[in-house]
Amino acid sequence: MDNKDTSKKNLNNINIIDIAKLVSQTALNCYGVVSILKKTSSFAITTFKKLSDDNAYHGVEIKKDLNGKISVSIYINIAHGVKISEVLSECQKVIIFTLDRKYGSSFCKHVNIFAEGVSEK
To answer: Are 46 and 116 a contacting pair, CB within 8 Å?
Structure first.
């Protein structure tokens, strides 16, 4: 059996919660990220709830396509006084790097990071 076949088989068995926990921990360790938010919608009104560090993975949305690749969406609060575009760009790069390192280079299809607020650290 080829190594590529083995890794592909293992990637299909990865728990989504484990990926969400890894993504949330990685994001929280990025400079300028204060907290992760959980998006909720009802009656065409979208609200965001700040999550504690222990439950931050609940704010990570992960979708898996038929090929086993994932797309990640995460909503964050940014620290006051930092350049928002730099924080979002660096956080995205670090999350992609972490996922690639752990699961392989073509595991993650998209990482979308949304700044929903600015707050004091």
So the answer is: no
Write out the two tokens for 29: 């360790």
* Domain of 98, in residue numbers: 3-119
CA–CA dist 44, 67 (Å, integer): 32
CATH number at residue 95: 3.30.70.1350
The CB-side HSE value for 9 (13 A sphere, CA atoms) comes to: 6
First-to-last CA distance in the chain? 50
pLDDT by residue (tens digit) across 59-79? 999 998 888 789 999 999 999
Q: Model-level pTM greater than 0.90? A: no
What are the beta bridge partners of residue 62? 72
CA dihedral sign, ordered 111, 116, 117, 121: negative
